[in-house]
Amino acid sequence: MLVQTYFSQLERSDLVCTTDLQSVFTKQSLAVRGKVPPTFGRWCQAELGGTGKVPPTSGRLGAKQSLAVRGKYRRPGYVKKDQPVRKGNCDKIHSVEEKYAFEPPRRQGLLFQAALAIVFGITSLLSFFQMLRTPIGWEFVFYFIAGIFAAGFVPWAVYRWFALRSAVYWIERNGLRIRWGLRWEELPMSSVRWVRSEVDVRRQLGRRLPLPWGALPGAILGTRQLADGTLLEYFASDFSTMVLVATDERVFILSPAKLEEFLYLMQRLLEFGAISPWQRRSQDPTYILGEVWRNPIARSLLVLGLLGSLTLMVWVSLLIPNLDEIYLSLAAEEPTPSTYLLLLPLTNGFFYGVNALVGIYFYRRGLSLQPTTEEQQLSPLSAASKIYAYLLWGFSILTTVLFYFAISFLTYVE
Predict the structure, then answer these.
(1) Largest Cα–Cα distance in the chain?
(2) Domain span at 302
(3) Are residues 360 and 394 in the same domain?
(4) Do both 289 and 330 map to the same domain?
(5) pLDDT tens for residues 134-156?
(6) Domain boundary among 259, 283, 307
(7) Which one, out of 82, 224, 280, 293, has a CA that is 20 to 30 A from the CA of 315?
(8) How far apart are CA 409 and CA 414, in angstroms?
(9) Residue at 193 is within a domain
(10) In a domain, 147, yes or no
(11) How many CA atoms lie within 13 A of 349 on its CB side?
């Protein structure tokens, strides 16, 4: 109830720009610049002493006073449309038509996620190494399950590293765009109700907002629902720079590295209002997987590769009890335990997983789905990207066949 009361107070606050007040703020912003359209009529005359114009000196004074009220004289950095993100690119707002990019803090998160992937990878390798040195039994099964479990977290950590590396928040006059890995969110500016830092909200509530389950440095991702029904969705990497962006349906929690500049720019663009409002759009990784599954060629290649890998693993598991020892190469002078034969299907499974993930990445590029309300233009590399995905998935099947012949040869030669 306390959170709901505070959120309602924010919506009624004089410092909050809602859709109902955007027209008034737009008029005031234009009046500060000395440019008051004649369509404002009586309001202009009443506010500006009946002249309908503001002297340039008064306009500059009004702009400074506007900044003084907010306590912020710093201007946000920006990048032009289709221009790569650069730190410290500019120190002021040149035009409300520009596209402003803000990056989340990355250094600490990237190091943590990379260390996590390395730890899980080493744990998986050690488990498989111990498995090969253990006779078939319960201990053998334990090491095998531990290795598979640890190996499953490696792509999870690698994806979170990749997602943080490519994460960015774009602010335009018409709305806010969020990219976090394969996740896209497009929020119309007309749907934004208020913007506040997490520090201010915590000070008013007297407690922290609940974090999503599994929140780690560099990957504060997920959703939480408050007792009053408010839905919080996190796209953050740092606990100290979080910002709350409240929309009509939920509250998004971001973490721009330049916190004050982000708040200032959002407030200013809310005052200006949107020129051509967007439609609310969202794209998540499940959408990409759905597109892949709906493609008959992609579905067939992935299913055949998975069935081939599983069949190879089951076949080798049935062969091992009937073999005392094997020679892993023609030049080997001494035989090795038959359990070492599991290295081949495990290696094949590793190749299949890598090819599947990289192929999905290329397939996603081939979809050319950019979060924009304008006409979607197909990328000239979209067809080539899909071909790369098909080749990777096809090579997984070819690799399984080659491993099948290799295992047949090793078990045939005594």
Answers:
(1) 104
(2) 284-414
(3) yes
(4) yes
(5) 777 788 888 888 988 998 899 89
(6) 283
(7) 293
(8) 10
(9) yes
(10) no
(11) 17
Hey, what are 15's tokens? Answer: 């410092």
DSSP-assigned letter for residue 189: G
Residue 358 CA: distances (Å) to CA of 160, 192, 284, 353, 392: 15, 36, 17, 9, 8
Query: Alpha-carbon Rg of the chain, whole angstroms?
Result: 29
What is the token pair recorded at 128? 């498989």
Domain endpoint, select from 283, 305, 337:
283
- Tally the domains of the chain: 2
Q: Is residue 413 part of a domain?
A: yes
Question: Do the Cβ atoms of 183 and 223 come closer than 8 Å?
Answer: no
What are the structure tokens assigned to 164, written together? 């943080």
DSSP 221-288: EEEEE-TTS-EEEEEES-TTS-EEEEESS-EEEE--SSHHHHHHHHHHHHHH--SSPPPPEEE-HHHH
352: Cβ contacts below 8 Å, ≥ 6 apart: 305, 306, 309, 396, 399, 400
pLDDT digits (tens, 9 = 90+) for 353-404: 889 988 988 887 776 544 443 434 444 456 788 888 999 999 999 999 999 9
Which stretches does DSSP call E strand in 182-219?
Answer: 183-188, 192-197
Q: What angle do CA 312, 318, 324 make, to 5 degrees?
A: 115
Contact status, residue 6 vs residue 260, Cβ threshold 8 Å: no
**Residue with token string 């690698």:** 158
Please report the pLDDT score of residue 102 as a whole number: 93
Residue 124, burial from CB neighbour count under 10 angstroms (0-12, 13-18, 19+): buried
Can you list the pairs that 118-124 forms with residues at least 24 positions away whose Cβ atoms lie under 8 Å?
120/150, 120/151, 120/153, 120/154, 120/157, 121/150, 121/151, 121/154, 123/150, 124/148, 124/150, 124/151, 124/154
Say whether both 393 and 404 belong to one domain.
yes
Q: Residue 173 carries which DSSP code?
A: T
Q: In terms of Cα–Cα distance, which of 84, 78, 107, 11 is closest to 261?
A: 78
For the beta carbon of residue 356, count every other beta carbon within 10 angstroms: 20
The token duo for 73 is 């004289």
The one-character DSSP state at 82 is T
Cα separation of 152 and 92, whole Å?
46
333 Rama class: left (phi>0) / alpha (psi -120 to 50) / beta: alpha
Contact 166, 110 (CB under 8 A): no
Residue 136 maps to a domain: no
DSSP 373: S
264 and 307: one domain? no
The pTM (predicted TM-score) of the whole model is 0.67
